[in-house]
Every structure is written in structure tokens, then in C-alpha cells.
Amino acid sequence: MDKKRVVNVDIKQYGMIFMLIVIYLIFAALTKGATLSPANINNLVMQNGYVVILATGMLLCCLTGNVDLGVGSLVALTGAVCGIAMVDHHMNMWVAILLALLVGIASGVFVGFFVAYLGVPPFITTLATWLMWRGLTYTVLQAQTKGPFDGSFTFIGSGFLPTVKVPFGDGQLDLISIGVAAVVSVLVIVAEVKSVATKKKYGFAQNPFWQLALKDCVIIFVVFFVFYKLGRNAGIPFVLVILAVIVGIYQFITSSTVAGRQIYALGGNRKAANLSGINTNKVFFWVYTNSGLLAAVAGIVLAARNASATPKAGDGFEMDAIASCYIGGTAVAGGAGTVLGAVVGAFIMGVLNNGMSIYGWSTDIQKVVKGAVLLLAVTADLLSKRKK
Amino acid sequence: MSDYILEMNHITKEFSGVKALDDVNLQVERGEIHAICGENGAGKSTLMNVLSGVYPYGSYSGDIVYNGEVCKFRNIKESERKGIVIIHQELALSPLLSVAENIFLGNEQTSTKGVIDWALTRKRAEEVLAKVGLEHENVNLPINAFGVGKQQLMEIAKALAKKVDLLILDEPTAALNDEESKNLLDLMLGLKKQGITCIMISHKLNEIEYVADSITIIRDGKTIETLKKGQDDISENRIIKGMVGRELTNRYPVREGVTIGDTIFEVKDWNVYSPDDDEKQVIKDVNIHVKAGEVVGLAGLMGAGRTELAMSIFGRNYGQKISGKVLVNGKEVSTKTVNDCIENKIAYVSEDRKTYGLVLIQNIRENMTMAARRKYFSKRGTINKNDEIVAAEEYRKKINVKTGSIEQEVGSLSGGNQQKVVLSKWMLTQPDVLILDEPTRGIDVGAKYEIYCVINDLAKAGKAVIVISSEMPEVIGTCDRVYVLNEGEIAGELTKEEVTQEKIMQCIMAHNRKDD
């Protein structure tokens, strides 16, 4: 027992981050550095914000072994609610946001009720909402685009945090961005030290020091890289704040709360979960209600970024969110997967989109490539499990 | 010289080092009904699976001589082509397909080019149904529109639709009521007149007495003897003696220093109906009680209703129209949901750990704390992972789960260690009453001993323990008192002093006779 217990860093988890970096570097080379520009990094964050939000909600559905197909349509519907409230009825922006969130929750409750208490399979229920909410959006918007929204609302989707700019090189640099990067780096190190201390206290297997150091260095490098680029552009986009809050909350819920772990238990073995006192119907209900809520948040962000509500908004977003979860290592049968994995998956999709667009590939070819990446990622995941 | 349709010579079959069959010999005469008897786990079903090709040639040693030639079946299709058809204990029917489709499942009646000829299918289905005494049934109805008894007959019709010379029936009457059973047994006698040889596995010795021409007894994977009607005594007592006549070695740790206290768990007038059929009563007027520090066994044959009783109590996870009272420490408590049971200090360790006990893709810690997490390992919904780790480590050491780390995935553990994880999971809910359903199923002897030690520790700690087991020696070896359950009723109650395997079997047989 005194033998020094050593484990290796979970390759699967960090393998995805590695893949993200590799894909990014490939496109940086192909486009001769065009994807490295500060403006493009900013675009990556802003364009993928809503997919990340949707992927977070979708992850919970995927953990139960199911999906929510209706979120793309719900993005459009909640955007339309914002538009109608603000443009047609001149409502206060906060009232409009509240209405949109309520519509999202109502849709989630609707799906949750059918799934959990009437036993209709989620695939069917959400296929229905996918159709219904899209049709409803076209109806309430009379197939027209509604807008423009005023600046205080569009700030949500395209605004920036205050900046403190100093001259730097051939342009300017925002010190707030650098400060945030520094704070994040310190937090990463503190968390690592704490985790090592806990493991020591309970005598758990430790990762070799060099692995942890390398891992943290890579994370800190990426953080500084991104925030430096943002600082060179226009500062920290407000969307990034929303993402950080949502990802933080859901990472906490899924890893450290009873409710969160109940989702994993349900996905891993529904019968065993039931016999362990977990009300699986209730879990299903809340998972789908939550998916509706996050779809509404994504809808608001998208409407704010576009400064308008269009009936076509969010078309196909559900597929991007599902793909993000599975590329991010979520088990196809449910029961395993992380919020951070889904976020990385979403950015892999985003980097692919972004890189291919800049390189000049048509959206048709982009779909082929994204499909292939999804298939490869899941196949690799399944094969690695079989070997074990 | 007798005319043997089948001789199985020196059959030995191992599962990862454990001999399930050890030099088994079986000789079946043409045109007879040959019964195979033995305790649960004696190897009866394994033997039939060897015969029908479920375990292919090469995975066992020994010879199968069928109609005078040595057979090397690689799968069921090959044995069926030779006219050997097996009907398993669980019906192999597709519930929503029609009767006619089910009868010709895998044996479709086609015109040229593989197109199904529905008219022919229906006509032939009616013909074979007539052979099993179901002349006037509508073959177009989905098969689940019929009761289990008729479904079982339809399953036989399905076998008759093929070329069949040797029909194997594994516990054919387990799910049937007396009248249906009688029908089926008479049908077997009818088939015998048509020259079809039958092998029948059954626990119901009165049925065996009724139809069988010879009886082969298997015990611990070995053939003990073959009794012939007319030559040997084939009374129930004689068969029981053959089935259980083994020596009991000291495989059970002695329980010392336990003081049995007051009754802390009681079930009163418990009645449950089948979830599929609200007319069929599965549990009838069951009354049991367990005292603090007492280990009480629930013995009975397969299908006696032991698990159904436990599951219907525990969160009403089985059955409908449940009535009766559950008392813990003299107070009536609700057991409507699993959480009610956990609150009221009742725990149930399921017989099927992989399906009902564990989340195989999660680690030991998460599985151990799954049931107790809400109550003991969280504050306002946030998990205290450190407490979880401490508790999981404590139980890992306490009941000796052999693993490198509590973060190991449960699916990668051996059966015995998995069982220990499930036990820990329920011990962590701090129960007063533990119902252990087949606590040692499918685990090796060493791990069994450790589980028995855990049971002793629980008794010492003043818990009420109920052990459900199909292995009679286990019930006898671990329990202070035994309830014998048969067909959903308490057929008898035996104290530690009086309980023997023969007594348990006699209780069951006496109860069966009372019903006839």
C-alpha cells in the first residue's frame, strides 16, 4: 500500500482540448495567420456563444441518454417574443427578457410533462416542439424580421465590458483583459494545489508533477492567448461573461449537487437509480425544463447580437448543440460527460466553421467536414472504451 | 437393449474454472417423458443448453449421441434441423406480433422468392394450434391478448410447427395456474402418444410423478441417479433425498454474541396482484416479522414470490392493488416510495446487482453513496465530496472491497466485490431492516463467506435481516428462522433447530398438495 500511487492525466478529457488546439493551429497555418487576428478571436467567442449555452442545456439531456430537438426552434420563438414585446409593444427591455425566459421555461415544462409524466419518448416530444415552435414563430412574426432593437438590448449580444486601454505595439491593449487573464491563471493554480492537497490527505493516487505542470501551463497559455487577443481588439465581450457564469453554474450543478449526480445515475442505470430512491420522472422533468430555459437565454443573446428577431433564427442549432456534446466526450447511451467537455466540443465546431469560412470553403463542404469530425470523435470514443 | 433417442456421455462444462457440469450422463429412451430434477443451480439448464447448441460444440467435453450419431451442434439452428426443440422458461414470443406470426417466427411460410404467404401462414397456424387443443383461437390477434397459459401452449405449437422429435421443456408450468398446468401435462402425454420424446425440467415433483417415465437427478453438476417408473420408487420423498443428499461442510461463519431483541419489522396481511393481470394474485395474506438481531430466511422455489414480496414492500416496485401494513419498531410506516423506505430505515439489496443495484459506469464512491447521498452526504443540495470519500474508504476497508481505489469503475470489479459495493450502498443509509435478495448469487466461495460475515455483523449491530435465497443450504446456514414461501403464500415457518432441506421441501410439497 505504501507504493507511490500514480495515475496519468485523463487523456480523454484533455485529448479534446488538444484536438481543439491542433485544429485551430491547422487553420492558422492554412489561412496564413488570418484566424489568429484579434478580431477573429472575438468573433469566435461571439459567434459560438449561443451554441455553448445550448450545448450546456443539451448536455443534461444527453446525460439521460436522450436529446432535445426543439431548442433551435425555441431560440427563434423566444427571440420573436423579445422582438414583439420591444418593437410592437414598446415594452421595457427587462420585461421583454423576462417574457422570453418565461416562454422558454413554459416550453421546457411542456416537454418535461410529456416526457416525464406521460412517458412520451423525448425524441418524439421534442421533434414535435421543433416543428410547433418554428411554425409558431413564423406565425407570430408573420414571416417578417422584427427590429431593430436599441443599443441597451443589443449590448447583451455584441457589447463589451469597460476597458482601460494603453498604447501597445502598433495599436492598443486593454489592461482589464490582461487582469482577468491573470486572475483566472491564479485561480487555476490555486485549484490545482487544493486538489493535490485533498488527494494527499486521503492518500489517493497522484498525477506526476510534470503532467500537472504541463496541463496548467497549457491552460494558462490558452487563457492568456485568448484574453491578449481580446485586449488587442475591443476588450472582453459581454457574451463571454454570460458564458462564464452559465458554464460555471452548470459545471457546479453537474459535479457537486445531489440533483446533478442524480442525472448521471439515471443515465447510467435508470432502474438502479429508481431503486436507490431517485425520482427519475422528476429528474427528467427538470432536465427538460432547464433545456427550455437555456434555449431562451440563447434566443435572447442571438436576438441581441443580430439586433433583430427573424423567423429563421436558430435553424439547425439543436444539431450543433448535440454534436458539441458528443464531440465533447458525452457517452452516447448517457450517464457520462461533462459541461466543460461540451463547451470544448462547441468550440471545436466553432473553430471548424470559422477556419473553413476564412479559408474559403463553402458552407456545403463545411457540413461534410463537421459531420465527419462528429463521426470520428464518437467512433474513437467507442473504440477506446471497447479496448478497456 | 433399450432404444435410446439420446445419449449424453461424460458431459463436462466449465465457466471460467468453475465446473457447472461434471461428467454428466443422460440417456433418454425413444418416446418417453424424461424428467430432470435438481436444486436451483444444479446444472439442469446448462445441460439443456449444451444439448441444444446454445453452448457450441467445443465449449464442453463429452459426446452427444442423437439417433445413433454423434452430434456437434454449433448453434440452435443446427440442433433444430435435427428435430431437437427447446422451450425456455421465459417465453420467446414477440408480444405485439400476431399468434400466426409468432408460431412461424424464424420459420416463415414463404412462397417462392422469400415472400411471406399469409394465407398459408394462418392456415398452418390453425392446424398446429389444433394439435395443442386450441382449435378456435383467432390467429390474427396479437399474442399478448392471451393469458400466459395459452401463450405457453402456443409456444409448444410453435415447436410443433417445426420438425420435432425431441422436445425440451424448461420449467413449463412455472408461470401457470393449476388448471393450465394440468392442460399442459395432458398435452405432453398426448404428444408422447404421437411418438414425440420429451425432456422436462421441473421443480414440481407432483407433476413429475404424474407424467414422467424416468427421472434423472442432478446435484452440483453431477448425475446422481436415474429412476425408472415401475422399477424404482419415484415418490416425492425419494426424489427429494436424491436432490439434497449432500453433506454440509462448514461454509458458514458462526454467529456469536448476538442477543435477539424485540420485533422491529412486521409485515401484516400483505396482498399483491400481478402487474400484468389484476386478477392474478401473486402474494396472498403474507404475515412475517423479524426481531432485532435476528436473521430470517425466505426460502422457496423459483417463482414462489420471494422477490415479488420484497419488491412490493420496497417502494411498491412490483405489482398492483397492494394491501397490507408494514410496521417498523411497532409503528405503521409508509413504503410507497423508495425514499419513504429509506426514511423509515428499510433497505433492499436486489437480487440482480447489475440491473437494479449498480451504475456500472460510475465509480465505487458514487455507487456506495447513491442511496444515502441526499440524506447524509449533502447540505442544501450540495454534495460534501469529502464526507463521501471518507465513508466510501471506511466501507471499502470494513467489508474488504478489493480495489486499488474507490474511484475505480464498478463495472470492472468482480461479482463478489460488486455485491459488497451494493451492500455498502444500503448500509450507508443506516437502516434498521435489511432485505437481502440472493446476496451471494454468482459470486465465489470466498466472497460468499465474507458476505455471511457482514450478515453476522449486521445481526450483532441489532439490525433485522431478511435473507432471500434459492440455495437452501445458505438459508439453513445463515438464518435463525425460516419462512417457506410457495405460490405467494407462507407455506411454513421453521426454527433454526428444525430446519433441514427435506423439511423445506416437505413444506412446499404439502402446500402444493393442499392446492390441488
Topology:
The complex is a heterodimer of chains A (388) and B (516).
Chain A lengths: L10 H20 L7 H26 L7 H18 L4 H25 L4 H19 L10 H8 L6 E4 L2 E4 H28 L6 H24 L5 H19 L1 H11 L1 H6 L4 H27 L10 H11 L11 H21 L3 H25 L1
Antiparallel strand pairs in A: 1-2
Chain B lengths: L3 E12 L2 E12 L3 E5 L6 H9 L8 E6 L2 E2 L5 H6 L2 E4 L11 H5 L14 H14 L16 H13 L5 E5 L7 H16 L3 E5 L3 H7 L2 E6 L2 E7 L7 H9 L18 E11 L7 E11 L3 E5 L6 H8 L6 E9 L2 E2 L5 H6 L2 E4 L3 H5 L6 H5 L4 H4 L1 E2 L2 E2 L1 H14 L16 H13 L5 E5 L7 H16 L3 E5 L3 H7 L2 E6 L2 E7 L5 H15 L1
Parallel strand pairs in B: 3-8, 3-9, 6-7, 7-8, 13-20, 13-21, 16-19, 19-20
Antiparallel strand pairs in B: 1-2, 1-4, 4-5, 9-10, 11-12, 11-14, 14-15, 17-18, 21-22
Report Rg of chain B. 25 Å
| Named CATH topology of the largest domain in chain A | ABC transporter involved in vitamin B12 uptake, BtuC
Strands of chain B, count: 22
What is the architecture of the largest domain in chain A at the second tier of CATH?
Answer: Orthogonal Bundle
Structurally, the number of domains of chain A stands at 2
**Residue-averaged pLDDT of chain A, rounded?**
90
Main sheet strand line-up of chain A: 1-2
What strand line-up does the widest sheet of chain B have?
6-7-8-3-9-10
Number of helices of chain B: 18
Q: What percent of the residues of chain A sit in helical stretches (DSSP H or I)?
A: over 70%
Percent of residues in helices of chain B: 25-40%
